[in-house]
Write a structure and sequence with these properties.
By secondary structure, the protein is α/β, with parallel strands linked by helices. The chain contains eight helices and six strands; from the N terminus they run H-H-H-E-E-E-H-E-H-E-H-E-H-H. It has two domains: 71 residues; 165 residues, Alpha/Beta hydrolase fold, catalytic domain (Rossmann fold, 3-Layer(aba) Sandwich), CATH 3.40.50. Keywords: Hydrolase.
């Protein structure tokens, strides 16, 4: 009787498994087709001098890169189950997540280490900008960073922002400025010290966050500030594994057909010099 039940279960499971596999494949196929379209549209808008074929080729290379990145994430997750479990638990423990700082689907941030105790001493604040080759990852992947900093009494903001193909570097800078502005306007309500805000980024997040401060400092030094300038509100900057010599970095990226996304040739030393001049 048990044998007959197992045989029946296997027979009913197999067609359903195939249906599930086909559904997953169709979903990923559609999702990547949408990403190719977004990438192609963005490249054509930002770089109209490039041919249609070049824009399409660059978009397809991007999707291939994302696929390889996803495969790498899966392999890493299988090899490091404890870290994956910790990240999941860190995210599920959130009580203050998905604050919206803008209209786009990626305009959301999470808070770690918050307090509503008005008598508590205001906590130092870290605004953390995730990396991911300007095109991948999510605030979810860095939940453990926020939780670990919270253990040391640091109120941490871990934010999403538009990455390629949702936007280019200019859009990323606009989003990062909005993240800092949201923090300045709201963090005191959650126990943060607006006079002690550190901006930090990892990898490509280190690049765009340093570029945000550099451009802001330049405008301030030239006496042409915008209504909100991030450099006026950041006490400390910490860049982690960021590409700061963009000439060398984009020479490398050009070999992977990512050449159109040209950044800045300004070195980190110039950022230090500008901030020293502002003191």
């Amino acid at each position: 009787m048990v044998g007959a039940w197992l045989t029946s279960a296997r027979q009913s499971w197999r067609p359903n498994a195939w249906k599930l596999a086909i559904a997953i494949a169709l979903y990923h196929g559609w999702n990547h087709a949408v990403l190719v379209h977004r990438a192609y549209t963005l490249l054509r808008r930002r770089f109209p001098q490039h041919s249609y074929l070049r824009a399409l080729w660059s978009s397809c290379i991007y999707i291939l890169t994302v696929q390889l990145g996803e495969m790498g994430n899966v392999a890493f997750g299988v090899s490091q189950p404890r870290l994956v479990r910790r990240t999941l638990v860190s995210s599920l423990r959130l009580r203050t997540n998905d604050f919206k700082y803008g209209p786009h689907e990626r305009h959301a941030l999470d808070l770690f280490g918050t307090t509503k105790d008005v008598s508590a001493i205001a906590r130092p604040v870290v605004v953390f900008i995730h990396g991911g080759a300007w095109a991948m990852t999510n605030k979810f992947h860095y939940a453990a960073v926020g939780q670990e900093l919270a253990k040391h009494g640091i109120l941490t903001v871990v934010a999403n922002y538009r990455v390629f193909p949702h936007g280019d570097v200019e859009d990323m800078l606009e989003d990062l400025s909005s993240i800092v502005q949201w923090t300045v306007d709201n963090i005191a309500s959650y126990g943060g010290d607006i006079g002690n805000i550190t901006l930090s980024g990892h990898s490509s997040g280190a690049h765009v966050s340093s570029l945000l401060l550099l451009q802001s400092a330049r405008r301030i030094a030239a006496n042409i500030p915008q209504e909100f300038e991030a450099a006026k509100h950041i006490k400390t900057y910490v860049g982690l594994s960021g590409p700061y010599d963009m000439d060398d970095h984009y020479a490398f990226e050009a070999g992977r057909s990512i050449g159109p996304f040209r950044g800045t040739s300004t070195s980190l030393a110039e950022i230090h010099a500008l901030f020293s001049a502002l003191k």
